[in-house]
Amino acid sequence: MLQDALFGASKILGPLLDPRTSLFFALILAVVLLWTPWKRAGRLLASAVLVASIVLGSAPLGVLLLNWIEDRVPPPVALPARVDGIVVLGGDVDPRMMRLRPATPGGDAQRQIAFAELARRYPEAKLVYSGGSGRLIDREDTDADGARRLLPMLGLDPARVIFEDRSRNTWENALFAREAARPQDGEVWLLVTSAFHMPRAVGCFRRAGWHGFIPYPVGYRTPPDPIAVWSPSITFDGGMWILAGALRELAGLIYYRLTDRTDSWVPGI
């Protein structure tokens, strides 16, 4: 029951970390104040919303924060000649869209693409796909369902894959993927997930008792040197979108550490 309550709370409070949400409600309040005797306060608040939108939307705050998170776990310099298994975490496609709109992942699908590529490179490797439904409501479609539809389009036979469809978050990914994979001492496994998500995944897998895996981060959202290629955004929403993603992941890292689901605040290797 406690786990269910924490899961529900995370889904409700998560959107509040998006600066666009805070600015939107602040703008509503400013407009309301303009129609009251507190017009001056409304003008000040509206001006503050405008300034905050310009700063948060155009400055590279989100890019720098997300780049720091992504670089905590670097990709392997070279892959081993032999791999016993590959586990990929779901979460970067929309399984409902895959059901309603065939060949439409609704995301970038970088984890699945890497999974299919690695499966071809290591034809003898055991394959595990871990992903249930992370939605608070309408949990009919799981990430595993979407993967069953998408992987054949990428040339990977779903019959080769063990699908774990109970996990709702990264901690449950670690628990249930380990249960499904049953890794043995001395085996070499690759862990595939998005680069920004890899530190939390690494911390969870180590805390769940799975050691010796090789992190394989994919789907980077920032370049290696973000300042070198940064230019101010004229569409402020773009800058706040990446900042929102970085803040959500940072909050997730803090929450997971406080609940003892990871072995450090920002896990690395």
What this model shows, in words?
With 269 residues, the protein is α/β, with parallel strands linked by helices. The protein contains 11 helices and 5 strands; from the N terminus they run H-H-H-H-E-H-H-E-H-E-H-E-H-E-H-H. It has a 5-stranded parallel sheet with strand order 3-2-1-4-5, sandwiched between helices. Strand 4, helix 9 and strand 5 form a beta-alpha-beta unit. The chain is elongated, with a radius of gyration of 21 Å. The model has no long low-confidence stretch (mean pLDDT 90).
Classify the helix fraction into a percent range. 40-55%
Q: Would you tell me the structural class of the helices and strands?
A: alpha/beta
Taken from the alpha-carbon principal axes, the silhouette is: elongated
User: What fraction strand?
Assistant: 5-15%
**N-to-C terminal Cα separation, in Å?**
34 Å
Instruction: Count the DSSP helices.
Output: 11
Number of strands: 5
Determine Rg (CA atoms, Å): 21 Å
Q: The biggest beta sheet, please?
A: 5 strands, parallel
In N-to-C order, the SSE pattern is HHHHEHHEHEHEHEHH
> What is the overall pLDDT average?
90
Question: Runs with pLDDT <50, length 5+?
Answer: none
Sequence of strands across the biggest β-sheet: 3-2-1-4-5
